[in-house]
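Hey team,

Filing this mostly as a record. A colleague (T.K.) asked me to run one chain through the structure pipeline before their review meeting, and I want the input and output archived in the tracker in case anyone asks later how it was produced. No errors, nothing strange. Just documentation.

Input sequence:
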Amino acid sequence: MKKTFALNTEPHVADVGGTELLFQPEVMGDDFMDAYAELREAQRGSGVDPDDLSDADPGQLRQVSRALRGFLAHLMLPESAELLTRLDVVADGAVIASFQDLEEAQEHADHTTGAKVVDGLRLPDRVLVELMEWVIELYGGGERPPMSSSVSAKASPPAGRPGTGASRSRGSTRTRGR
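Output structure:
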C-alpha cells in the first residue's frame, strides 16, 4: 500500500486592505513553535495584562505589537516580512528614513525635531490578531501551541452519558390553592 502526502508549494496569501502579504507555503513545526515561544515570552516580559488593558503603558503595548509583528514576519516570505516589520521615521508628514530595528528608528527620530516612529504598514491591532489566529490555523493545525496555560485544552467530559431523567429542581410542581 502506498500513501502520498502533498506539500504546499504556493505561498499563503493574506489580502489586507488590498496589500497582499505572502506567507511560507509550509513551516516546520519547530520553527513555528520557536516563533510562537518568542511571542509568548515577549508578551509575558512586557508586563501587560491582556485581560486588563486599562492601566497598560503605551510603550508596553507597542512592545507587544512589535512582538506580534515579529511572530508573523517569521512565517512570511522575506519581502512581506520586511514590509510588516518596517518602521518609518516621519517628520512634517514625510518619511525621512526607514528601519527594521526599533531602537535605531527611535534614535534617528530623537535626533530630528518633530520626528516620530510609525509602522511602515499601519494596521489595526485587531487585524494583527486576526492574522495571528489565521497563521495558527494554517501552521498549528488550528490549535494554539500547548505552552500557554491560558489556552490549554478543555478537560474531557466525564465518562458515561448524562442522565435523561427530570431534575427535581427543574421539574414543575403543582401547588394547590395558590
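Quick notes for T.K.: The beta strands are 12-16, 19-23, 87-91, 94-99, 116-119. The chain has a mean pLDDT of 81.
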